[in-house]
Design goal:
CATH topology of the largest domain in chain A: Rossmann fold
Largest interface: A-B, 116 and 116 residues
CATH class of the largest domain in chain A: Alpha Beta
Radius of gyration of chain A: 21 Å
CATH architecture of the largest domain in chain A: 3-Layer(aba) Sandwich
Catalytic activity (chains A, B): prephenate + NAD(+) = 3-(4-hydroxyphenyl)pyruvate + CO2 + NADH
Organism (chains A, B): Salipiger marinus
Largest sheet of chain A: 6 strands, parallel
Low-confidence stretches of chain A: 294-303
Pathway (chains A, B): Amino-acid biosynthesis; L-tyrosine biosynthesis; (4-hydroxyphenyl)pyruvate from prephenate (NAD(+) route): step 1/1
Mean pLDDT of chain A: 92
Family (chains A, B): Belongs to the prephenate/arogenate dehydrogenase family.
Number of domains of chain A: 2
Strand order of the largest sheet of chain A: 3-2-1-4-5-6
Bound molecules: NADP nicotinamide-adenine-dinucleotide phosphate
InterPro entries (chains A, B): 6-PGluconate_DH-like_C_sf (IPR008927), NAD(P)-bd_dom_sf (IPR036291), PDH_C (IPR046825), PDH_N (IPR046826), Preph/Arog_dehydrog (IPR050812), Prephen_DH (IPR003099)
Shape of chain A: globular
Number of strands of chain A: 9
Oligomer: homodimer
Number of helices of chain A: 13
Order of helices and strands of chain A: EHEHEHEHEHEEEHEHHHHHHH
Chain lengths: 303, 303
Amino acid sequence: MSYPRVALLGLGLIASSMFWAMKRAGMDSHVTGYARSQATRDTARRLGLCHEVCDSVAEAVRDADLVVLAVPVGAMGELAEAMAPHLKPGCTVTDVGSVKQAVIDAVRPHLPEGVEFVPAHPMAGTEHSGPDAGFASLYDNRWCLIVPEGASEQATARLEAYWQALGANTERMEVEHHDLVCAVVSHIPHLIAYTMVGVADDLRRVSDQEVIKFSAAGFRDFTRIAASDPTMWRDVFLTNKPATLEILGRFTEELFALQRAIRTGDGQLLFDYFTRTREIRRGILQAGQDTDAPDFGRAAVRK
Amino acid sequence: MSYPRVALLGLGLIASSMFWAMKRAGMDSHVTGYARSQATRDTARRLGLCHEVCDSVAEAVRDADLVVLAVPVGAMGELAEAMAPHLKPGCTVTDVGSVKQAVIDAVRPHLPEGVEFVPAHPMAGTEHSGPDAGFASLYDNRWCLIVPEGASEQATARLEAYWQALGANTERMEVEHHDLVCAVVSHIPHLIAYTMVGVADDLRRVSDQEVIKFSAAGFRDFTRIAASDPTMWRDVFLTNKPATLEILGRFTEELFALQRAIRTGDGQLLFDYFTRTREIRRGILQAGQDTDAPDFGRAAVRK
Ligand SMILES: NC(=O)c1ccc[n+]([C@@H]2O[C@H](COP(=O)([O-])OP(=O)(O)OC[C@H]3O[C@@H](n4cnc5c(N)ncnc54)[C@H](OP(=O)(O)O)[C@@H]3O)[C@@H](O)[C@H]2O)c1
Ligand SMILES: NC(=O)c1ccc[n+]([C@@H]2O[C@H](COP(=O)([O-])OP(=O)(O)OC[C@H]3O[C@@H](n4cnc5c(N)ncnc54)[C@H](OP(=O)(O)O)[C@@H]3O)[C@@H](O)[C@H]2O)c1
């Protein structure tokens, strides 16, 4: 039920983790890989990433039954255009982009008749990037959202089975809803973390050394989030504009309400707000999407 | 060099961790404890927290050489007033509050002549609270900020040695600077996390179930931060008003600049901003204040 030949286009965190997860799952697919730069292709060869690293898109996709676009969202269209003439008739194209409407708009026009396009988005990642950042368990117990958008049931179900074999749970979603949900649970939190770290870095009255030395829970987590790849995140915000701006508008509205409560000394409003948000956390722990360990994230510091 | 008798007033996360850390350090101090509610005192007795749990403040502080105020910032003044008549002459009073100017203003007026007051703030915590949330290693390799503000060198140095024995590093700081640094590295990050989780909870177009199910890195961390104790954080924002409002003003300014860049499609600005914030993260890793493990926080999910 897996794909005999898989092509990974882009060899960063997401694609390399897919390869290691395929290996771990014992899939017997033949995997070709392509990356834009010689440096990344060399690293991939050194690491044994993919059975064959190709120097051109054409070579990589030739004969592939599944082609995975695993580059920043803003680069998907160009890549799709370059590969399109070389696709095997009847193959399936998918992507792993964090935004779906923009990717569909950029990719679909280039695809020839008879090629299935099943957009997908594994909701898993770290702040690291590049071909050496991947690991086999990245997708374990994480969600991979599938946006069928006109693909056949057969092609969709096959891609779902593939992602499940990599360790993920899958769920189908409408494209617009996907982009909104992701703005809430991922994109805007990243933007906020970037902003807060930027503020700390700007503030001349507090030195960088102090920010680093005394970084407490809260800020420390923000710095990790704000260490994520700048190209990827630039593209996310440029391409998920409507949802991003909607959620950002709501966020500043609520922040202003809390700011006013601080200014006027409205302790009851603050208390009630802070009480309500605890429930969401409880839900996430129950759903097994995080751990409740009191020393969360400090293991390596301790030793 | 330690204190023969220590009184812990308030028996939550911070005080209970202090007791377990004292025990681990093999200090031979006699520790009395007091908490407002019968329920907390009962739990403390059941856990063996403190050598003696007292039903009144007066009893708890009688004969104590060090008295630690470990209640929410807004409750410090009242507690100081209640204990003041019963303090042993020449003892040292300290606190662990997250805000320092407000605590000094609330506590100092009540203290009799000859009692030393050395405010302190251990920069360590979790999102859990209460007498059963503590653990001995909470302060290991964390900073405890000391704000001497008129205390004698002897009393200050003695408190520093005590905190070092609990595992912490200590650093002296001016009170106003303390409140600003903490607004940046802790208070505003918490406010922002609370706000973002509140926005997610409000949004009718995205259900709570979805927010919980698909919570990705970023948002997941925010929910942990936003699960912290509502009373403690209400008090922090009400009492650290000037620094909080200053940093909040800067934060919204920067957020608006990024929002405009998204709206106008200024990818270069976004890219440069996101690149700059990576450096801070590098500093924090080098300073040993966090771990770089790729599966950060997912250990318990995996098993
Ligand atoms: N990281 C996450 O947390 C995460 C989570 C879910 C989804 N995603 C999505 O997954 C995709 C890949 O992310 P990633 O984290 O794997 O990124 P990454 O580690 O930075 O790798 C990106 C890969 O894309 C290539 N690339 C970059 N710009 C390109 C261009 N203009 N043309 C052709 N190739 C280009 C890079 O090639 P070179 O190395 O040769 O430059 C690299 O191989 C993105 O669409 C992202 O939105 C990421
Ligand atoms: N948690 C952190 O991350 C952290 C980090 C650094 C500093 N701090 C500071 O440490 C202090 C204690 O925090 P914590 O985390 O240990 O809190 P906690 O776990 O919630 O415990 C607070 C304790 O204070 C008592 N208390 C609450 N309100 C009181 C009142 N009005 N009068 C008398 N006692 C009262 C509670 O008694 P009952 O149980 O009987 O209600 C409880 O024993 C706060 O000032 C906080 O700002 C906290």
